[in-house]
Design goal:
By secondary structure, the protein is of the alpha/beta class. It has three domains: 240 residues, 3-Layer(aba) Sandwich (Rossmann fold), CATH 3.40.50.980; 166 residues, Rossmann fold (3-Layer(aba) Sandwich); 124 residues, 2-Layer Sandwich (GMP Synthetase, Chain A, domain 3). Helices cover 36% and strands 22% of the residues. It has 19 helices and 28 strands. Strands 4-3-5-6-7 form a five-stranded parallel sheet, sandwiched between helices. A five-stranded mixed sheet has the order 12-13-14-15-16. Strands 17, 18, 20, 21 and 22 form a five-stranded antiparallel sheet that branches. Helix 4 crosses helix 5. The longest helix is centred in the N-terminal third of the chain and has 17 residues. It is globular and about 75 Å long.
Length: 591
């Protein structure tokens, strides 16, 4: 009888849990690295070598429906050289700044390589910037030209572009804004010949200026030199951490904003260093099918995306059924393989999370599916990561040990995390005062608070600027409390706040599976509230849970482009109601 019931559960589950299969593109023979590449002065010189060593191997793959347009290393190089000719024809000189405003696509990387080939400085912007914010970073960055590509809100953004700024439009992508300017990518590739002379940068030259997404304040332009990249790769050769040269990054899918340092390192720098294939996602709607088709060997996501992947699985396969299936020896492995293949993660050698803290509960949940997420900690100013949970030493709740070459210290007075590396930024562009503010001698002040566990794993406990004071004059650090709430699988987003209130309150967004009107779910939230308060000091106890029925959309303005909460914006939106909510008799309020 028990066997029959179990069999019926399995049959029902597989009928409902329909997952698309994968169609992997043909494997290539990769030339990992040569002595010439190791001695190269820059990542650009490595690209030149790859053009010569395997010109006909596929480098970039752009989807359109079920078809993929593939570009080889030689084709990418030729297109980049033609764009160099265009930029020089427009009067640009070595050292000039050139911007990129686009969602990820093959032209993004080709344009970036062209900028470097011409001896210019690459200044990429978030494609979702508002007109006001875009105007601000254009003025701050002193760009002389701007590439415009896949955009959703061009009609609102275009008024930020100065009339005298040289603009080049990428080919139009369906379901995106029509970007019209005089210089058009496809026509330029037809009309202009490849440049004969390309630039070979010095290590001290500026590779890129990256404007921080910023949860508060004016964006700052982080100056990253070629030497910063050289040091990251040199360190990886000497002591492999990320597996760049061990085949981990053979196939990557590029979908997070390429102007973010983590995605830039994963999809552009690492791919050139390792000779990897980079595939792009066509759109948000097609991301799932693109991921399934690519089956990447390296997959990087921010915590909010990992949470959405989890919720997507639970929508098709509820937690109770999943738990039952994972306990059955015969189908345990089969169900894990089906899930990973359906997600597009069947070939992943390294699944990475970064850009914001991820809960230990989420990591442990994925571990049960044999998806071992490695959390990385770093910053734009640190050219990516400085601590990492290596695959054989993942410690949930920590961001791992310092990578070789990174010296991490904790300020004894403030608990601030201080970092010194050979690949730290040279400073903020045109902002010597702001640069001075974030350096303590050779150490970069991260703004994060942290501590080490007994095995020297770094634990990030919060952001200094997120700390707030209650009406009782007590300071509250939100992040540790938020992590405690994250143990409840019904909660998707949580923000602890309460400036000037007697006690802190919690703003919650629930998962799709949650129903606040369901007594069991309501009781679950109540139990979590009681359990969290039991573990907290008196001044940290949460008085009220504010549950937002419709949640916060990614385009609500409450998130940075890397999906971190903009706490000050959320406070501005709701702070007038905080006292009223706290004074209510109910401990859980539905909004």
């Amino acid at each position: 009888m028990a066997y029959t019931v179990r069999l019926e559960i399995i049959k029902t589950t597989f009928k409902r849990f329909v997952l698309m299969g994968s169609s992997l593109f043909s494997k290539k023979i990769t030339i990992k690295e040569t002595p010439e590449m190791e001695r190269a002065n820059s990542i650009l010189d490595v690209f030149y070598l790859r053009e010569k060593l395997h010109p006909n191997q596929v480098y970039l793959r752009q989807p359109k429906g079920e078809a993929w347009k593939e570009l080889t290393w030689a084709e990418v190089g030729q297109q980049a050289r033609k764009i160099v000719t265009v930029l020089r024809d427009q009067g640009l000189e070595v050292g000039d700044h050139v911007g990129i405003l686009s969602k990820n696509c093959s032209q993004w990387i080709i344009a970036d390589i062209a900028i470097l080939m011409g001896g210019f400085v690459s200044v990429p912007f978030y494609p979702t910037l508002s007109e006001k914010d875009l105007k601000e970073v254009i003025e701050l960055s002193n760009i002389k030209a701007l590439f415009l590509g896949k955009l959703d809100t061009w009609e609102q953004q275009k008024s930020a572009i100065p009339d005298d700024l040289t603009c080049i439009a990428f080919p139009h992508y369906d379901d995106n804004s029509k970007v019209d300017c005089e210089l058009k990518w496809d026509k330029l590739l037809t009309d202009f010949a490849p440049c004969e002379k390309v630039h070979s940068p010095k290590a001290s030259d500026i590779f890129t200026i990256i404007y921080t997404s910023g949860t508060t304040g004016t964006p700052k332009g982080v100056m990253v030199t070629y030497q910063c990249i050289n040091e990251v790769l040199k360190n990886e050769r000497a002591t492999p951490v990320y597996g760049i040269y061990q085949g981990v990054s053979d196939r990557v899918i590029s979908y997070l904003p390429l102007n973010h340092i983590a995605e830039r390192v994963v999809s552009e720098i690492s791919s050139i260093a390792a000779g990897s294939v980079v595939s792009f996602s066509e759109s948000l709607e097609q991301f799932s099918s693109n991921l399934q088709s690519v089956q990447p060997t390296l997959f990087f996501a921010v915590p909010r995306i990992w949470a959405k992947i989890q919720q997507g699985i639970l929508t098709k396969l509820p937690q109770k059924k999943l738990d039952i299936l994972l306990k059955l020896p015969i189908v345990n492995k089969l169900i894990k393989n089906k899930i990973r293949d359906g997600l597009g993660l069947s070939s992943v050698k390294s699944a990475i999370s970064g850009a914001a803290p991820v809960s230990a509960e989420l990591l442990n949940w994925f571990k049960k599916l044999d998806i071992n997420i490695q959390e990385v900690y770093g910053a734009t100013e640190l050219c990516g990561g400085v601590s990492f949970n290596s695959l054989n030493d993942i410690v949930p709740g920590t961001v791992g040990k310092a990578v070789p070459g990174a010296d991490i210290q904790i300020d004894p007075e403030t608990d601030e995390v201080l970092v010194n590396t050979p690949w730290t930024m040279t400073g903020y562009y045109m902002s010597p005062n702001k640069t001075a503010e974030v350096f303590d001698g050779q150490y970069y002040r991260t703004g994060d608070t942290g501590k080490f566990d007994k095995n020297n794993n770094l634990i990030i406990t919060g952001r200094i600027k997120d700390t707030f004071k209650t009406a009782k004059g007590k300071f509250v650090l939100p992040l540790p409390i938020e992590h405690k709430f994250a143990t409840n699988p019904l909660i998707e987003q949580v923000m602890i706040t309460g400036i000037g209130l007697i006690q802190p309150i919690a703003l919650l967004c629930l998962t799709e599976q949650a129903d606040i009107e369901n007594d069991a779910h309501l009781n679950s939230l109540t139990e979590t509230l009681n359990e969290v308060n039991k573990q907290s000091d008196n001044h940290e106890k949460i008085s009220t849970l504010i549950v937002f029925k419709d949640g916060w959309a990614d385009d609500s303005g409450f998130f940075t482009p890397t999906l971190k909460l903009k706490r000050h914006i959320i406070d501005q939106a709701y702070k007038k109601k905080y006292e009223k909510w706290q004074d209510a008799e109910e401990s859980i309020i539905l909004i």
